[in-house]
Design goal:
Length: 648
């Protein structure tokens, strides 16, 4: 095949998708007759094969020309300076356009750009933790633009010189993007570089500058972000990428005043974080005073050098804040037992529900745990507690384990790097055996013995299965609430292993077996082992409206009462049922009347009115017999009742 023939084949394949270009090629291409002319014999230039892409030094020029649409999109991307998407592009061309754009374009110029390919690239490159991007990528139909704008705005604030926050375009950026921003994470906010020299000095550099000389750009500028729900501020360094200076972790009282001016405008704020910043009591008092007016769900003050005189401020805040607060994170500070005591008072009187408390890496010691335990005792607070690295010692660790025993709402406990020892490990196993609600206990590097560690893992697996069954109960009870009051559907009920254990332990420990040949003593003494299979049998009985046949069959035998042992009237008939069939009605309970109604009242549907007397679980069937037809009618009534008994 000649070079011309090869060119024709290649260009035909390459231009197939471009109809206009293909038609032009068909009209003006070199024909077979023209190729035979002498003038074409030495032809070396083929205009159809010209490539418009630049070739760098040392690069090779491709023989394949690009699609015309690709060339157009490349020129559009190179010439784009801001604004909305160019009109007239297809979906694929829009994706190509977004992938070709420069992600470093100023945020003020690209706010109106709706191109998900571009914004996804921005999020992937600008996010500080790759795992955050991967989590977003798993969300079906995620809208990337707001996340990309949040990252670009945060970058603009961090890179803008503090002295130009209000004088430059930063305020215009916040006003323009306010409708998109829900979450803002600001880190490595560096203070103003220049310090005004004292009288008599021209210029100097201050080392270990005090807080009053470490002012930043005015955070009052955040007042424009009225849709903000999550705010994170880090005055210190995320990572040591620049020369370390102590002043990087300092901020002035003026900075806190400026932030206080912005917070009243952020009434939708739910999550507030300040980390790696040197906090003093006067700054914290000002901050908490403003936050108390906002319905926060989470407050984090981690690694903020909180120490003396801080506990009383935190306690007052918790006692006065709205009832929406659910989580507090104070990790990495210097709170001792005295500060924990003042702080715990606020928890004790808090009217809301404090779900999570993180006081890890604080030197609270054993006294701090005692005070905290006393504050949350008999309350519904603290479902999750983190006391990792709190310098507790073995006695303090033992107190934490005791907390699991008497504080039932506690379901998740983190106590890594806390020496439990032999006695603490044994106590941990004991309290976990009694508390079926505990979901997770993290005790790495706690000096647990291997057998204790293995036992703890086994108990937590048991609790996990129990929680799954409890969740099923909750779903069924919700379904029951949707059933009309005059209809009872037994399939909406469920029996948990815990309920089976409680019932089995109330059985009389008898060694006399029933029809299933299993004595009640076995159910009583092996309740924990039998709880799971028995609960499955009971629940399947509800779901399938069937009852195990062997549990329906009783043992009946006469018992002599007194008098003449030959007289049959001196004997009483006793029925012995299988112990597994006695989950029954709890006597004297509040739920007893409801349960008996569910189990027994639908018999009235089966039996004709006027021929029965029902009192609780006693039933009398009667009919005046005046003819043979009345006998047949009574027999039919009995047959219907027997059939109902078989079905139930």
């Amino acid at each position: 095949m000649s070079q011309v023939d090869l060119l024709e084949e290649i260009c035909h394949l390459r231009f197939t998708a471009e109809r206009d270009l293909l038609n032009s090629w068909e009209a003006y291409r070199v024909s077979n007759i023209t190729r035979q002319l002498a003038s074409e014999a030495d032809r070396t230039i083929y205009a159809e094969a010209i490539a418009f892409s630049d070739v760098g030094d040392g690069g090779s020029k491709t023989f394949f020309p690009k699609y015309l649409s690709t060339l157009v999109v490349e020129r559009l991307a190179a010439a784009y300076k801001g604004g909305p998407m160019p009109k007239g592009v297809t979906c694929q061309q829009a994706r190509d356009f977004g992938s070709m754009l420069n992600i470093e374009l100023p945020i003020i110029d690209i706010v109106k750009l709706d191109n998900e390919t571009f914004w996804k690239q921005v999020v992937k490159v600008k996010t500080k933790r790759l795992v955050d991007f991967l989590k977003l990528e798993q969300i079906p139909g995620v809208y990337w633009k707001p996340f990309g704008i949040e990252l670009k705005v945060a970058e603009a604030i961090e890179n803008e010189k503090p002295e130009y926050w209000f004088e430059g375009c930063l305020e215009d950026i916040l006003i323009e993007t306010a409708s998109f921003i829900r979450k803002l994470e600001l880190s490595q906010l560096l203070p103003l570089e220049k310090v005004e020299p004292a009288e008599g000095y021209e210029e100097y550099k201050v080392y270990n500058a005090p807080p009053e000389l470490c002012s930043h750009g005015s955070l009052e500028i955040l007042k424009h972000l009225v849709n903000l729900t999550s705010l994170s501020l880090v005055f210190g360094l995320d990572s040591i990428l620049k020369g370390y200076e102590r002043r990087f972790f300092q901020f002035s009282f003026e900075d806190m005043e400026n932030l206080g001016k912005a917070l009243p405008k952020l009434q939708l704020l739910q999550y507030f974080t300040m980390a790696r910043s040197r906090m003093s009591p006067d700054k914290l008092k000002l901050l908490l005073g403003q936050l108390a007016q906002i319905k926060l769900k989470s407050l984090e003050l981690s690694y903020c050098y909180l120490g003396e005189d801080i506990g009383i401020l935190l306690g007052k805040y918790i006692s006065r804040c709205p009832e929406t607060l659910e989580a507090i994170n104070l990790t990495g500070n210097f709170l001792n037992d005295k500060e924990i005591e003042d702080f715990s008072y606020g928890i004790n009187v808090y009217q809301g529900f404090l779900d999570k408390l993180d006081i890890s890496h604080n030197p609270i010691g054993e006294p701090g745990i005692l005070v905290l335990g006393g504050a949350i005792k008999n309350t519904r607070h603290v479902r999750e507690l983190n006391v990792t690295g709190c310098e507790l010692g073995e006695q303090g660790a033992y107190r934490v384990v005791q907390l699991i025993g008497f504080h039932r709402p506690l379901k998740i406990l983190h106590m890594n790097c806390t020496p439990l020892g032999k006695s603490g490990g044994k106590k941990l196993v004991e309290v976990l055996l009694e508390n079926w609600q505990v979901e997770q206990v993290n005790c790495k590097s706690c000096q647990l013995r291997p057998r204790h560690e293995k036992r703890v893992k086994s108990i937590l697996r048991r609790n996990h299965k129990f929680q799954l069954s409890q969740n099923q109960v909750g779903r069924r009870m919700i379904a029951l609430a949707t059933v009309p009051q005059d209809i009872a559907d037994l399939s909406t009920f469920s029996i948990s292993p815990y309920m089976v254990i409680a019932a089995a332990r109330k059985l009389k420990s008898s060694f006399s077996p029933g029809p299933d040949e299993i004595p009640a003593a076995v159910y009583c003494r092996c309740a924990v082992a039998l709880a799971q299979p028995l609960s499955r049998i009971y629940n399947q009985s509800f779901d399938q409206a069937k009852f195990p046949e062997v549990w329906k069959q009783p043992y009946m035998f006469p018992v002599f009462k007194a008098g003449d042992n030959i007289n049959i009237k001196q004997y009483q008939g006793i029925t012995n049922l299988s112990a597994g069939s006695k989950s029954g009605i709890p006597q004297g309970s509040n739920l007893g009347p409801l349960l008996i109604s569910l189990f027994f009242n639908d018999v009235a549907v089966v039996l004709d009115s006027g021929y029965k007397l029902i009192f609780v679980d006693d039933l009398t069937l009667y009919l005046v017999i005046q003819s043979a037809e009345d006998c047949y009618q009574l027999q039919a009534l009995l047959d219907r009742f027997v059939k109902w008994c078989g079905l139930n």
